Amino acid sequence: MLIGQEPHLPYTRPPLSKEFLQGKQAIEESAFRLGELDVEWRLGTAATGLDRTRRRVQLADSTEVEYDRLIVATGSRARTWNGRGDELDGVHTLRNLEDAVALRDTLASARHLLIVGAGFIGCEVAASARVLGLDVTVIDVADHPLLPFGPQLGERWARLHRERGVDLRLGVGLAALYGDTAVERAELSDGTQLEADAVLFALGSVLNTDWLAESGIELNPAAVCDATLTTTRDPDILAAGDIAAVPVSLADGVPLRIEHWTTAAEHGQLAGRNALLEPEDRVAHTAPPYFWSDQYETKIQAIGCPALAERIEVLEQTPEADRFVAACVRNERVIGFVAVNAAKRLAWYRRQLAEEPMTLAEIRLRLAGERAVLGAPAGAAT
Amino acid sequence: MKVHVDMNLCQSHGECVTIAPDVFALGDDDVLVWQEDVDDDRRADMEAAENACPMMAIRLED
Fold it and tell me: Distance from A79 to chain B by nearest Cα, in Å?
């Protein structure tokens, strides 16, 4: 049985901030191919509680479902902003299909979009809105956009957006929104006043763990699991996706929440298989995190844990620096790679990462034996 | 079995290349190339590639 809060059958979310907003893809194209999946669906029904002693999940419609094995995969929701003007029309977050439809409708008649938050969603929607011809301002309290791709590449991401006409303002927050019924104007924390007839809050996510608060499952705040996705205090309960904190070998085995599409997909498949096995027979999740973002014609891809990097070194790049690969280093060990418009090269780095732990010197040595690296030799300055 | 990739969907993520480098590869222009006829004993890898594709671009046919 599959219980879900949303009324829809499963769908893929990455296009919502990109192809769908830009009108290149219809919403129906987001549906997953389910094939002959033999599942009893309880859609539009949120889980509200978990009683492990009686092995029952409590649902919003006041019914209960009994289980032998349970997979917890309630994910996360968009973090909201609470402040003056947060109730105005034209103010959005973006997480699910309804959010995307509502944002698209607002953008259809808006002229100036203000985006609060320069992470994945903020930057992807900024790119989509520029493609649609809107004026776009992006603000963030951080000093760099796209921190998950590594703090030290921030200048490059900032340039990417400014060259495409985004008014990117860093180190500044939002003070208030003003308007009659719909938003018309924003005031920033430094007192700046901006015109804005559409606002997107892209402030990251909050875990949907409320229903587990009384369950006794270890929450850190995510559901803490071992490498087989089995929760620490109950072998009959596994977790998958955003909500699972799973040991990551590239992060010295620390349980991490990896909020990426491919990790969630891998978790789902593995949790399903492991749930049918006894704990001692279960298989560990070992694939390093992979994630990507498409902004304008730029594809950013990353493998490993760039957000944890102490240092990021560009290993190869074209003279124009529009294609490059950088290594992410922590404790002298390479823990990930970021590639821009360099998918084939990333596949090579990915194979290196799958082997033994390595230092930057070792990866440079292996790189020296490679043919067809991008443009300039290793060691070019960022 | 036959392996189909919808190149209107493919965005060169390289998941399939990681799973089955003997069947899938990225060219110097980062565009995917692949072998269309694959032995049935590779079914597990092909299904893994189909499931791993973030764009749901891979389809298998018997």
Answer: 25
